[in-house]
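Hi support team,

I submitted a single chain yesterday and got back a structure, but I'm not sure I'm reading the token output correctly. Could someone confirm the output below corresponds to the sequence I sent? I've pasted both exactly as they appear in my results page.

Thanks,
R.
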Amino acid sequence: MKGIQIERNFTQFVVFAEDSILSALSKITANQSRLIFVVSEAGILQGVLTDGDFRRWIATCGDIDLNQPVTAAMNPDCKSAAEGTSAAELATVLTSRIIALPLLDSHGRIVAVAIRATDGLQIGNRKIGLGEPSFVIAEIGNNHNGKLEIALQLIDAAHAAGVDCAKFQMRDMSRLYGNAGKSDDLASDLGTQYTLDLLERFQLTDDELFRCFDYAAERGLIPLCTPWDETSLDKLNRWGMEAFKVASADFTNHALISQLAATGKPLICSTGMANELEIRSGIKHLQQEGATYVLLHCNSTYPTPFKDVNLRYLDRLRELAEAPVGYSGHERGIEVPIAAVALGASVVEKHITLDRSMEGNDHKVSLLPDEFAQMMQGIRRVEESMGKGGERSISQGEMMNREVLAKSLVAASDIPAGTEITESMIRIQSPGQGLQPNRLPELIGRRLPTNKAQGDVFFPSDLDAPAAEPKRYQFAQPFGLPVRYHDIKTFSQSSNLDLVEIHLSYKDLEVDLEQVLPDLQDLGLVIHAPELFAGDHTLDLCTADQDYRDHSVMELQRVINISRDLRRRFNCPDPVLLVTNVGGFSEHRHLDRSEKLPLRERLIESLTKLKTEGEVEIIPQTMPPFPWHFGGQRFHNLFVDSEFIANFCKEQSMRVCLDVSHSKLACNYLHAPFREFLNSILPFTAHLHLADAKDVDGEGLQIQDGEIDWVQLFELIHLHCPSASFIPEIWQGHKNSGEGAWLALERLELSARQSQPVSLAR
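Hi R., thanks for writing in. Yes, this is the structure output for that exact sequence:
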């Protein structure tokens, strides 16, 4: 059975009798419980208003006036229970029909609201439970050794590591120990005497602790503290602590737990030093008290031998707890907490120190700041790696490799349209750009819809009607398609393209243009520089490696020279646009703002070395946070956020190619409004790549298959850069005679038609 949660902070569940119906409805919407209790000024229960009560009131009343007092619509026959009713009794009343129950004192005043416990809880702005990132606590404890300065430094270190919470401990020594906490009590045994000596010397004052809590909150951390006694609990509660930690030593202290539960605040309880019978008893008590809680598996040995950690107990503890579980670690190293997260720990607690050689036994099992940061990185990577389960899909990186390494069904010989396909007409061959080999049975016996030459790939359109076919399109802006040399004639003759964007490979740099483009093309032109050059060289104009950067400049100059030649073979009187990725990668993480500055300066220096002769305009491409390249996924740092892009364009008098798929992914990653990004960058845009996007790395999706508002995009294009050209850049959109590209243009045309001009004031 799920536990019963007693909400003692119940303001979200009540309105006063004189409040309006409209006000009551607003509170019902906010508390998401479909009801509100009505009380007098003295807090005495008057009735309840549920969704059903409101509907019944509407059906019976004449004129609907939502400004009437809520008493006009409420039901005065409201079920309740007395304060102190056991959880078991409350559970028999709380049903799918009665989802919340007011608990009343002897005067009929509401003192709490009982609801069924959920699978999670919330501390501050952080939800804790299934599907949420692990709530990571940096246990400072007494590792400040009684010095406020060290305590503040530890908070800074915890913040830099990326934790959620900084935790301390508070004790009233005179109340906590029978000898008033005196370490010179000769009757104390050795262990107690040692501990008391440390606590006597290394405690912060109450005011110093409160200063730490305030400072942690200022740094964006949730402050947390373990009260070791009733006096400390009262102080912390009056300060406004949002939750409490229960030490392992107090998990069997039911009296203290009752006092903690009475605050109505969530409890994070360690279970070290408790056997399973005691754990069961503690859980029962927590549920009887209506507490909201998390249980932490813990071994209270300092340090804990790895053989005693027993992480598999997390599964057992979760079963017993009927609540989220986590892990509090005292072992050496960072591996065990990371493993705990992989096993479903919703909370992780680990000690932090500035120096393991400092006096005190906690230091020896604590992580140094850089180690804590490594642990946090490992935890977040594991969380990301866990995924969402469910049906398996192919990742973007796998799609790229599948195209190259997998196999397709291809024509073994020339096959005329209308021919009934037999197995002998098909062979299996790389690359994997068409139907996978497992779909062979679907092809056999079908009539071929179009001619196939030997070696041509079979596509889904050979099984069903093609998704789209070329036609004449109408756009206010110049538009075209991405092409290789061999595509130009076919695609330009199929539709009314204004331009083509030639995507060069490093092999194309060796091609004799007289052979592939002997005639003048009646088309506009955009060129996309290779990302990869011979010798596995990825273009990077920003790297600190001078030789590598010089080589990148040399390769890009070759592209510029070829672009000048190509310009003269197209209807391109203006400087030809050259789209390029300028580099700025990192292998392990994104760089912070200060680390990006040298990259920016090196980029500017590299650009000054390039000679365009006024015939080529270099337009850097906006980038996603996790770009895919032939070498795998990396971290990108330049031309990702709008502030950098806009400032760079202003200062260097440059324009960009706005890849809307890339930039939507960047906005998703940075939690930045995409419309604001567009308003900032479109005025600096010379050319656009159009494809849809999803999450943080789902790039190149078909139009309308992702998250982009295409009607809004065209409205903003009309406003900021009406003459900018564009191409659809759909992943593998060129396959099957450009089927994906034609479908993209068809959908873009509809969105452009639906768009309306907007003003700068909008």
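A quick pointer for reading it: Residues 53 and 420 are 68 Å apart (CA to CA). Let us know if anything else looks off.

Best,
Support desk
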